[in-house]
Design goal:
The chain has helices at 22-30, 48-60, 85-88, 98-105, 124-132, 163-174, 189-200, 232-244, 260-268, 308-316, 336-341, 371-383, 394-397, 403-409, and strands at 2-7, 13-17, 38-42, 63-67, 70-74, 82-83, 107-111, 136-140, 143-147, 155-157, 179-183, 204-206, 212-216, 224-227, 248-252, 272-275, 281-285, 294-296, 321-325, 345-349, 352-356, 365-367, 387-391, 413-418. By secondary structure, it is an alpha/beta fold. The chain has a 4-stranded mixed β-sheet with strand order 22-23-1-24. Strands 2-15-17-16 form a 4-stranded mixed β-sheet. It has a 4-stranded mixed β-sheet with strand order 4-5-3-14. It is elongated. The N and C termini lie close together (9 Å). The structure holds uridine-diphosphate-2(N-acetylglucosaminyl) butyric acid (EPU). Uridine-diphosphate-2(N-acetylglucosaminyl) butyric acid binds next to helix 1, helix 5, helix 6 and helix 12.
Length: 421
């Protein structure tokens, strides 16, 4: 297994380019299942989760060709309705095959994802919505089995704005009979990106990016070309890396508007952020110690849970006591014991983490528990004195593209090494 070795303590300098968004590319690739015709998707990040999604689509009968960041998909002959446990257990986003398979083929069998390091993560809202569109849904032997001759448009009010749940229902509604109106849905920019792609394929969608989306079903979708939006979580991670090391870096190729709440909190910590006038980059400068701040994770446009672990690393070295409240995933504090190993002072009280900043962290051997927790540990390592080794970096590889290389161009001493056993 690979490890990441970091020699911390040097401020980062230079320019880093942001890649395509994993969480937009995943539903967009899954949406290829909705019809024949060639789909050409550009700016797809070359990360493990996207490789898994391509594997799943191939298994279902989609012809998938990859050339660097371009993925070409042709789904005229989808033969299978089943997303098996072996693949789903390695990537929960496989649930995104459910809506498209059901609406296109009238039947879908998708393994329940099972446990997850960051919380229980049920999919009841996906299933409830599909049932409201007329699907017969059963959960049996660990599999979701859904059937419907043709889904019917319905009014669906979500109890919580689930991201992949919203995406599944939008995709299902594209080929349903009549009009579907989805209320209290997630407003994440990745959903608007999916809707942009579906619209290019001939779907009729109104309200993308708002909490009410209306979809008029059509009988078929055609091929289309699309470029995936920039990854706001990757951008936020680098902005925070610039801040925690007291560096001066420019994060290019992001959409600064997608990071409003994150930027506000980082500025409150005393970091100077200068956004490009065209909204696609930001310069990050930090010359004084960070200041404590209060942060609560919320659905978009609130502070993203996917940047919570990284923010906790910053709070660990900020002057004063910070409070971080996690409201999206109940179990997303597994990085805390690892940060303790690096000298951080963090107490967990239910959904709150009380973080007393220390003047400096010390390098240590730590273990990644999920994708974003790994990123938090890398940031802590960049700020710490001495050497930090992060093991189980396969978590990191699920969602960050060429991370150590990108940090290398910013002058960080970050290296991938093979674990010696
Ligand atoms: N929830 C339910 N029932 C459902 C669906 C969700 O109770 O049917 C609850 C979840 O248990 C959780 C909350 O709603 O407490 C939010 O979950 P959501 O469904 O919005 O999350 P998701 O769609 O499974 C996506 C991202 C995650 C990101 C979350 C929140 C993708 C592929 N995944 O997950 O990304 O953290 O939204 O923004 O888009 C990551 O990239 O590291 C990652 C975990």
């Amino acid at each position: 297994m690979d490890q990441i070795k970091i020699i911390g303590g040097s401020p980062l300098h230079g320019v880093v380019e942001i890649g395509g968004a994993k969480n937009a590319a995943l539903p967009i690739l899954a949406a290829s299942l909705l019809g024949g015709g060639e789909c050409i998707i550009d700016h797809v990040p070359q990360v493990r989760d996207l490789i898994t999604m391509a594997k799943l689509l191939e298994l279902l009968g989609v012809n998938v060709q990859t050339e660097g960041g371009r993925v070409m998909l042709e789904a005229s002959h989808v033969q299978s309705i089943e997303a098996p446990y072996d693949l789903v257990k390695t990537m929960r986003a496989s649930i995104l095959a459910l809506g498209p398979l059901l609406t296109r083929l009238g039947e879908a069998k998708v393994s329940l994802p099972g446990g997850c390091a960051i919380g229980t993560r049920p999919v009841n809202l996906h299933l409830k919505g599909l049932a409201m569109m007329g699907a017969e849904v059963q959960v049996d032997h660990g599999y979701i089995h859904a059937k419907a001759r043709r889904l019917k448009g319905a009014r669906i009010d979500l109890d919580f704005p689930t991201v992949t749940g919203t995406e599944n229902l939008i995709m299902a509604a594209c080929l349903a009979e009549g009009t579907t109106s989805l209320h209290h849905v997630a407003r994440e920019p990745e959903i608007a990106d999916l809707c942009a792609f579906l619209t290019k394929r001939g779907a009729k969608i109104l309200g993308a990016g708002t909490d009410t989306i209306t979809i008029e079903g059509v009988s078929e979708l055609h091929g289309a070309k699309h470029e995936v939006m920039p990854d706001r979580v990757e951008a936020g991670t680098f902005v925070m890396a610039g801040a925690i090391t007291g560096g001066d870096i420019t994060v290019k190729g992001c959409v600064t508007d997608h990071l409003g709440n994150v930027f506000t909190k980082i500025q409150e910590m005393g970091v100077e952020l200068t956004e490009n006038s065209d909204g696609n980059g930001v310069r990050v400068r930090c010359s004084a110690p960070l200041k404590a701040v209060e942060v609560k994770t919320l659905p978009y446009p609130g502070f993203p849970t996917d940047l919570q672990a990284q923010m906790m690393a910053l709070m660990s070295v900020a002057e004063g006591t910070s409070i971080l409240t996690e409201t999206i995933f109940e179990g997303r504090f597994l990085h805390v014991p690892e940060l303790h190993r690096m000298g951080a002072s963090i107490e967990i009280d239910g959904p709150h983490a009380v973080v007393k900043g220390t003047a400096s962290l010390t390098g240590a051997e730590v273990m990644a528990s999920d994708l974003r927790a790994s990123a938090g540990l890398v940031l802590a390592g960049l700020a710490a004195e001495g050497e930090t080794t992060v093991s189980r970096v396969y978590h990191l590889d699920r969602g960050y593209e060429r991370l150590e290389e990108k940090f290398g161009t910013l002058g960080a001493q970050v290296q991938r090494v093979r674990e010696v056993v």
